Amino acid sequence: MKLLPEDPRLTAYALGEIEDQQERSAIESAVAQSTELQQAVAAIRDMSELLTKGFAAEPIPELSEFEKARMGQPTATRERSGGSRILSWPVLSSMAAVLIIAFVVLPQRSALKEDFAYQAEPRKEDFADQKLPIESLISKFQIAEGNPALDVEIAAKMLIESSPFQSIARPDVKPNEFVESARSVTALRVAEKQMASRVLMRKRVIIAKEADSDVLLESLESGISMDYSAPGKPAPPKMVKAYASAPAPPAMMLADNGMRAPNQARELPATFNTEKYAPIEESGFRSPLVAALSTFSIDVDTASYANVRRFLNQGQLPPADALRIEEMINYFPYADAAPTKSLDEGGAPFAVHMAQTIAPWNKSHHLLRVALKGYEMPWDERPSSNLVFLLDVSGSMNNANKLPLVKEAMDLLVRRLDGRDRVAVVVYAGASGLALPSTTANNYDTIQHAMDNLKAGGSTNGGEGIQLAYKVAREHFIDGGNNRVILCTDGDFNIGQTNSGDLTDIAEAAADKGISLTILGFGMGNYKDDLLEALSNKGKGSYAYVDSSAEARKVFLEDLTGNLFKIAKDVKIQVEFNPAQVNSYRLIGYENRRLKAEDFNNDKKKAGDIGPGHTVVALYEIIPATVDSDAPSVDALRYQGSVELESAPGEVATVKLRYKQPDADVSQLITRTVNSDELVRFDATHEDVRFSAIVAAFGMRLAGSEHLNGLSYDAIESIAASSLGIDPGGHRSEFVGLVRRARELSPADTTMPVQSHGTSQE
Amino acid sequence: MKDERRSFESNWMRSIVDAHAADLTRYAASILYDADGAKDVVQDVFLRLWQEPRANVEGHVLPWLFRVCRNRALDVRRKGGRMKRLDEASAERAATDAPGPETVTEQQDSHAQILQMMQALPENQQEVVRLKFQNGMSYKEIASVTELTVTNVGFLLHTAINTLRARVVASGE
Q1: Structure confidence by residue, pLDDT tens digits, A331-387
Q2: CB A506 within 8 A of CB A539
Q3: DSSP state of A603
Q4: I need a labelling partner for A371 at 20 to 30 A (CA). Which of A149, A160, A378, A441 fits?
Q5: How far is B86 from chain A (nearest CA, A)?
Q6: Interface contact B47-A89, CB threshold 8 A
Q7: Cα–chain-centroid distance for residue A58?
């Protein structure tokens, strides 16, 4: 047997993984005859030992008894369903019942603890006794995961077992110690409320490692455990210590008194694992003989790019399903000319630009770039605005990059509005409320005052907030104006009594009545991309993700008018390809924006809106008719008239656009044709064309697209670097940096079989 | 009768949790970079185990747990839930598992180095290396967890080990 050191079987052999005896002895004898192989085997075994020891040195997470006990909990479903298996995960239906019980119990618990806290000489035994009914309840109703009662029980156990309460039980307890203990009870109540309201997202007791009051406050208010990740450190006992030693933070009281959720039992699980990133299926090449028409809705969102940037900056390659290439392309400003004639004078809301070039990843393929550029409305031509800011002021927004940033941005905006415009602010947290009734924007001091008084605290109940915001918007509706709810959230969006479906219905119904929804996602926390994207799509608004102050400036200053106003709605694009010129084509991105061909002319079928100054770019990759391709094709059609391949220049495609004026029901049509002699060499084409093509290439590269033809990150980087143009805002330079980052994170050897991650079969 | 069965199952469950929860949490954390989220994932895994008829998992509980854990963790990661920015995550790590500057220097031995080098491998290689050398799984078990073929697992491991060997040699020079 001839065996090379590069043979994977040698590794298998060295690791004792060859099961077939014959094969094993064959390898054995091959190794015996070659010192080279012997050295290789020894080296593999050395490496194996080194790795085993290295991994053994990695700290193993230490799980507390509480955590283990919780992990061992069965679901109620198992009890009920017997033989039949319910595979939904989590088992929501069973949880509903359990949760209602839990919430009935909770208020009594709070009352209990209140008594306890203010009792003159509280004793540990009292508390323990009073806890009993809950314990029996818990054992009676097999607790499903995330049940707050279980968390509360655990918390209670810790409370009892932890030092401050032991000190209470002691007769020599000093008064100030008692006060501290009472505070810790208050703290626990706040924590408990957090747990209850975040029942499915936060399934653990809040831990604050540092006895630093700010840290404590942060962790309490946000419900984000600060330091749970320390491997090998049993955390729970620290919690109460931290509470006890921290001075009572004033905001905690605020959260306790002012932000109480009116009815927490309504916060039923709706979002946990019910949505996903919709899997993105890259579209392949299609022959115009099979499908002559390609139809899709425009998309002005940019969130995917910011999300991808976050992944790369945190040292991970983004998962393929997070890559919406059209959102990556449309993130960047392009210099395509906007219409010059104003809307009032009957100008078109957007200009259409076409360009053809060679695909940078395949010399024999062409790229068709269709760009729409919205009319850049002068600020004083804007319609009157009725803006309702819906602000998430839950604890998790209490972060320099969140609420303060939102306020700053709102201030920038309000300063640019005037007496024609109205601004209202609805906040939501434990309870939702109107922080600023609708006020004309020239009352700057009033607005400023309301903004100054906004503070983060309490948990999130977005469902009520959104209804209140829409109510305010309806009450001050401006006919023909810009009526809009602007949701600013970190995505920790407990949606109260409504499930996500109801919520999108509300947004959709409001959009039909002329109230749009703009969503600005902030920070990290429990960011829910899928929910927010669905909401903004239904709400017919834009959706941007603000991950940094630089991005906030882009969204609020550079893209301000584009995000706030719309100049055309239901914008659809349909491209008809000429089989005489085009062998096959594919649309890059827009996977979830496809429309049926017949929807194009159907004015009842909704599509995306476009705002002033927005650029929407779509790229088609085209295989010219003169090039052979293996795209699925059909036999020559007998009744369609035969197609003669033309070598002479001719029409490649007809691009049709439909849009409606913001207040119209009937669409208008724009038709443009593309000729083959308009093709420009890639290096001679405009930098915007080059840049949008290379952003697409980057997205395809990250998604592992087979169409990319092995274009390397280095090539992408150098093309991007040579297509910066004047780069207002520096976004393109940043992109070049991201390409570099992706290359560093990517496998060095591209010969590896590509294993796509994350096909969940369970 | 039913109670008896229940308690039997509870004990069985508890023994599984005791035996594997920590390993699973570490594994999930290696996918999520988030020990907290990892615990949630592992809890979900055990919930699934309760729902799974015993006969389906008997005899290969370990790969079953790891597979469900992997899929769940990847799901969570894909949804971008509980993601932390690099600076947040690293600051936290610095505050928690980093044992202080002096100890760090002492620990800069071959073990830490090899882990660092491992982290430069492509993710699919890292994963099989971890399952092999941290969790002591066979090629077959790894194949079952990652839903790859045994040959593919062998190839990934082989490539990973060769790369690491080359890097160790290079760093020694």
Answers
A1: 898 888 888 877 777 788 889 999 999 999 999 999 999 999 988 877 777 788 898
A2: no
A3: T
A4: A378
A5: 4
A6: yes
A7: 31
Mean pLDDT check: name the lowest of A480-494, A562-576, B64-78: A480-494
With respect to residue A75, please indicate whether it lies within any of the assigned structural domains: yes
- Kindly state whether residues A477 and A408 are assigned to the same domain: yes
Report whether pLDDT(A209) > 60: no
Residue pairs between chains A and B whose CB atoms are closer than 8 Å = 247
Q: What integer pLDDT is reported at residue A367 of this predicted model?
A: 95
Domain B1-98: top CATH class: mainly alpha
- What DSSP state is assigned to residue A3? -
CB atoms within 10 A of CB A706: 11
Cβ contact B29–A315 (<8 Å) = no
Sheet holding A582-588, edge to edge: A582-588, A615-624, A362-374, A350-359, A679-680
Candidates A696, A695, A692; CA nearest to A707 is: A696
* Residues A525, A500 within the same domain: yes
Q: What is the pLDDT of residues A722-754, one digit of tens each?
A: 998 887 777 888 899 999 999 988 876 443 333
Show the CA angle centred on residue A725, arms to residues A723 and A726, nearest 5°: 155
For residue A44, the chain B residues in CB contact (below 8 A) are 161, 165
Q: Model confidence at A164, in pLDDT bands (50, 70, 90)?
A: very low
The DSSP code for A5 is T
- Is A54 in Cβ contact with B26 (below 8 Å)? no
pLDDT at A330 over 60: yes
What CATH code would you report for B99-173? 1.10.10.10
Q: What is the DSSP letter of A477?
A: -
Q: Say if residue A630 is exposed, middle or buried (CB neighbours under 10 Å; 0-12, 13-18, 19+).
A: exposed
Q: Is residue A286 part of a domain?
A: no
Beta-strand pair A482-489/A515-522: parallel
Task: Write the single-letter amino acid at B69.
Answer: C
Of the candidates A725, A715, A716, the residue with the CA atom closest to the CA atom of residue A694: A716
Question: What separation in angstroms does the CA of B35 have from each of A232, A311, B77?
Answer: 11, 18, 13
Exposed (0-12), middle (13-18) or buried (19+): which is A337, by Cβ within 10 Å? exposed
Residue A312 CB coordination number (10 Å): 21
Task: Please name the member of A60, A75, A529 whose beta carbon is closest to the beta carbon of B80.
Answer: A529
Which tokens hold the place of A97? Answer: 């019942």
Q: What sign does the CA torsion over A469, A474, A475, A481 have?
A: positive
pLDDT of res. A370? 95
Tokens of A359: 């695909």
Task: Give chain A's domain count.
Answer: 4
The answer to whether position A348 is within a domain reads yes
Whether A738 and A300 have beta carbons less than 8 Å apart is answered as no
Residue A335 lies in a domain: yes
Residue ranges per structural domain of chain B:
1-98, 99-173
Distance between CA atoms of residues A612 and A560, nearest Å:
9
A422-432: average pLDDT? 77
Task: Pick A68's closest partner by Cβ from B17, B164, B168.
Answer: B17
Looking at the predicted structure, is the pLDDT value of residue B44 above 90? Answer: no
Angle at the Cα of A106 from the Cα atoms of A103 and A108, rounded to 5 degrees: 130
HEC assignment per residue over A71-122: HCCCCHHHHHHCCCCCCCCCCHHHHHHHHHHHHHHHHHHHHHHHHHHHCCCC
| C-beta atoms of A747 and B111 within 8 A | no
The domain that holds A302 is classified in CATH as: 2.60.40.1230
**Minimal C-alpha gap between A214 and chain B (Å):** 16
The 10s digit of each residue's pLDDT in A63-109 is: 777 777 777 776 533 332 233 333 333 333 343 333 333 343 334 43
The CA–CA distances, whole Å, from A685 to A7, A352, A735 equal 48, 17, 20
Both tokens of residue A43?
């080296």
Which residue of chain B has the CA closest to A313?
A: B86
